[in-house]
Specification:
mainly alpha, 8 helices, 0% strand
Length: 171
Amino acid sequence: LAGGLLVWYWVRPPAADPLYGRISEFISSNAVDQWHRRENDIQSFLEHHSDDPRAGELREYLEEIDLDRLGRRLTRGARRQAGRANLGAIEHAYLEAIALVESDPEAATRRLQAILDLYGHQVDSRDRRQLITLVERRLEMLKRRFDQTAEATLPVLLERLELAEELSKSD
């Protein structure tokens, strides 16, 4: 009997609250590219607690992990010449846009938006839907970055404008 209880203790599904706590704490303190470290916990939660109200949020985390994985796979494939030859038009356009993120984020934003405008309505497969979602997420990320930059630089610009106005009055 004691052996049976011991086996049951080790094979029982993890309790929802501690498992969710472990997942959400990790996810809130790490970037999306690190979330895959909790993928097994997320899948375990969804497998054993699919009716829990927090399951929808965890499904979204899994989708983000899948999108991050897709983005990495595309980028790795693009580094190989043979891998680039097997890519479709959307994948090529995405990689060209992403290559511009650091050097010309505004051009990257325009290109990502163009991908959505051209291909966003032609979602005929799960893979295409996932790729379009990846483009949407990257575009959202860039727009948030622009907003944060604008928010940080606006007070400095206003201060400089006031100083320039004062200097022009004194001339």
